[in-house]
Amino acid sequence: MDHHAELLGKIDRREACVAVLGLGYVGLPLVRAFARAGLPTIGFDIDQNKIDALNAGRDYLQHPAPGLAKELLCSGRFGATSDPKDLTHADALLVCVPTPLDDNREPDLSYVERTIDTIASVLTPGRLVILESTTYPGTTRDIVLPRLERANLRCGRDVFVAFSPEREDPGSPGRSTRSIPKLVGGIDDASTQLATALYRTAIETVVPVSCAEVAEAAKLLENVYRSVNIALVNEMKLILEKLGIDPLEVIDAAATKPFGFQRFDPGPGLGGHCIPIDPYYLAWRARQAGIDARFIELAGEINCAMPAHVVARLEEALRQRASTIDNADVLVLGLAYKKNIDDVRESPSAEIIRLLKGANARVAYSDPHIAKTHPGRRTDLAMQSVELTPERLARADAVIIATDHDAFDWDMVAAHARLIVDTRGKMRTVADVRGEVVSA
């Protein structure tokens, strides 16, 4: 049987069943894109709470959109499961699971390995497997492919394997899974052709590249580019603060140049799954090849040091007010890693809170998108968001602006907070600030 031709025909007729493994911030938007394109879809996750919520039409994430679970349930083309046996119905299996770092800041591919092993246990000839999880060049060929071929299936004939990096941008209006161009690189030409055809059913622009390694490396370059430039403006901020120059005014001035400059803004550190993690995947792979990625690792060091800088600025401001951080009442505004979303992955706010607690401060947070914290892979803050009121602001010894959500009443913050440590430059946009503002 010509499995390639058969699967390509199913894709062209929009009869191919797509299974998305990992129903988080990447997997859910992908499910929606294929379901809206008219393909039957399966959502798979080992978290039974997610499966129960989806099958009840109940959202568990604010992003990608409120009402998504109900939309999928009512589409008649979607089912959620935690049973690997249900994956036997899928023609294409897309892997969207975490790729974190271990305690030594080296790649942890355990989620990918376990997921691919699950797929291999139910895999039959004529299937397409695509890894979307960000990783170092060579993962698809050296880690994914051998695990699939253990089922006595040969790539390019019985099973087809490709890599296509996710490019989600949570909280950015005007961008969607469908509108963001999709890179695709297969282990072989047949795999690239099938993966390209599949994504073109749901994505406006699909860009095939010569192999999986190119797609893997391109994703890392995208995020290393951002990491390095963010580190540059963060270091520039530290220098300019020491010189008594407003860093944001300098950035505003530089951004008037219509060529040769792209604006990046400083902040309290890096958050999200991509930028704080992906550069270390490339640095690790470079070390395996005998290359010291000094530029990439330096950027990581600068960005990782920013939460400590924020706390140091707070300590300095308190000392000038004849106070100390010990037993100080500190209110952190924003737990999400960027504004207007509920995503706390690798959020610098969590590290700031950890450092504050370590200094014996009394810490609370307020975030309109995150009512309470949940245990993470490394931390469990065990906190609940407090209501942002004039009374709560006035009671705090210091308020740290960590995430500049639009839902915050910034005029109220400016009117009632006695000491504001502003990591986002938000108070520059408020006309009447009654308390002291310290940039950080």
What are the SSEs and their pairings?
Elements: H1 3-12, E1 18-21, H2 27-36, E2 41-44, H3 48-55, H4 68-75, E3 78-81, E4 92-95, H5 110-122, E5 127-131, H6 139-149, E6 159-163, E7 182-186, H7 189-200, E8 206-208, H8 212-242, H9 247-254, H10 278-288, H11 294-304, H12 306-320, E9 329-333, H13 348-358, E10 362-366, H14 390-395, E11 398-401, H15 410-416, E12 419-422, E13 436-439
Parallel strand pairs: 1-2, 1-4, 2-3, 4-5, 5-6, 7-8, 9-10, 9-11, 11-12, 12-13
Antiparallel strand pairs: 6-7
Helix pairs in contact: 1-7, 5-6, 8-10, 8-11, 10-11, 12-13
> Any idea of the CATH topology of the largest domain?
Rossmann fold
CATH hierarchy class name of the largest domain: Alpha Beta
Helix content: 25-40%
Number of strands: 13
Give me the secondary-structure category: alpha/beta
Share of β-strand residues: 5-15%
Helix tally equals 15
Mean pLDDT: 94
Q: Spans of 5+ residues with little confidence (pLDDT < 50)? A: none
How would you describe the overall organization of this protein?
There is one protein chain. The protein has helices spanning 3-12, 27-36, 48-55, 68-75, 110-122, 139-149, 189-200, 212-242, 247-254, 278-288, 294-304, 306-320, 348-358, 390-395, 410-416; strands at 18-21, 41-44, 78-81, 92-95, 127-131, 159-163, 182-186, 206-208, 329-333, 362-366, 398-401, 419-422, 436-439. α5 (110-122) links the parallel β4 (92-95) and β5. It is α/β, with parallel strands linked by helices and 440 residues long. The chain folds into 3 domains: 3-210, Rossmann fold (3-Layer(aba) Sandwich), CATH 3.40.50.720; 219-283, no CATH class; 305-439, Rossmann fold (3-Layer(aba) Sandwich), CATH 3.40.50. The protein has 15 helices and 13 strands.
